[in-house]
Amino acid sequence: MKFTITHAYDKDVETVFKVLTNPSYLAQKFEATGAKNIQVLECGRSGREFVIRSQMDIAAKPPEILKKFIKATNTVVAKDTWRFFDKELKTGVFEIDIKGMPITMKGVLVLRPTEKGCEYIIESEARCGIPLVGGKILAIVERDTRDNQKLDYEFTRNYLENQ
Predict the structure, then answer these.
(1) Would you say 118 and 11 are in contact if contact means Cβ atoms under 8 Å apart?
(2) Who contacts 2 (Cβ-Cβ below 8 Å, separation ≥6)?
(3) Which of 3, 8, 10, 121 lies 20 to 30 Å (CA to CA) from residue 155?
(4) What is the extent of the structural domain holding 65?
């Protein structure tokens, strides 16, 4: 399953990138979106890349019929790897591992200028290895991701306004 989420900001690419790669901001954002046991494991340059690794517990809202496949709280390990980050355009990839679930999620990150600031594009691809109910599980993963991203976007917009 593929889906794209786009956030528009009224700040330039460089300003938004500095925020998105700030460990203090990351911890505050994860907390604001409801995550628990947050750990920013890595946040900095690694060779020619900028790597952010984090781990946290995130609540899920599975329907009763899927509770045997999806726990109410899941440990999520995420890695964002920004590979190209000049002043105008920044691109990278991400991987998300939901511990104990046969789901993989990866995708592309793009931060690019617009007339009014910039946009942050998250192109996701999620896969599930459970036959028959995998599609329903992926629909929940997409719904929960979109819900989380709405909270993330509001927090980031407010954070940027107060900088």
Answers:
(1) yes
(2) 123, 124, 125, 126
(3) 3
(4) 2-161
pTM of the model: 0.91
d(CA 91, CA 119): 12
* Number of folded domains that form the chain: 1
Q: 37 is written with which tokens?
A: 């046991």
CATH number at residue 156: 3.30.530.20
pLDDT per position as a tens digit, 67-104 = 777 777 889 999 999 998 787 899 999 999 988 888 89
Residue appearing with tokens 């790897």: 81
